Amino acid sequence: MNTFNPSAIQALSQPYDQTTADALAPLQAVIFDWAGTLVDFGSLAPTQIFVEAFATFGIRITLEQARGPMGISKWQHIEQLLHEDSIAAQWLTAFGRAPGAADIDAIYARFMPMQIAKVGEFSAPIPGAVPTLQWMRARGLKIGSCSGYPREVLNQLLPLAHAAGLAPDHVVAGDELAAGGRPGPFMALANVLALGVTDVRACVKVDDTTPGIEEGLRAGMWTVGLSLSGNEVGYAPDELAVADPQEVAARVAAAENKLTQAGAHYVIRSIADLPEVLLSIAARMRQSVKAA
Q1: Which of the 8 DSSP states describes residue 14?
Q2: Residue 74 annotated among the catalytic residues of the structure
């Protein structure tokens, strides 16, 4: 089964024309998540490291459990995992007490060097990401980004992504705003300020997680969810290539439903399908202005 839409990627290589650029008005910017959206097909880097970090404390969590809170900042992610009944029960058995803030700090301290060491292995752009950003930039759209990754992890990821052709105009890390991260609107709005966007309604937030969709909605933006490439489906490219098509279809349908229920205005399989959606959003915006 294909991991992306070849015809969509081929369309991105078409020469620039003013008609297409005009068709994107009045959109001003698109703000992307990173893992599962721009890089790391399947959002594998953070999930596996959560499993490994908890294991060093003698606590066993599954990949499915690790994926549950994905999208929020990593300290808060660990906090939510420790509040899950089965994980909290393991902690109580192992340490004779319920987990607290100091335990979250301890797991986070174990998690961080492991994540920094491993993130580069999952830095490959998702198919279609590089030409999509090129397509957008050539037509005047600003490109922002934000992540649940802390800045120390992004500092390892960004040079590799840049070398591969991914260079957004702005990047916000999950641990660098005093107001907090997702599902609050703060990282998305920090991009608005940095990019000089004059209207949040002219922004699109693209994410593979429900906290990322909620972030965009709270910021007053259009939202686009990604199903196949992201956390909710969770296949590595090699796993997807040999997976049972019915199982893939079931996972994609569940992801689409979850992202839709979170409020996403559109849900697509991967970033390769985004340009068509941006054109649709822009057309709807122009139509609403005429109707008013």
Answers
A1: S
A2: yes
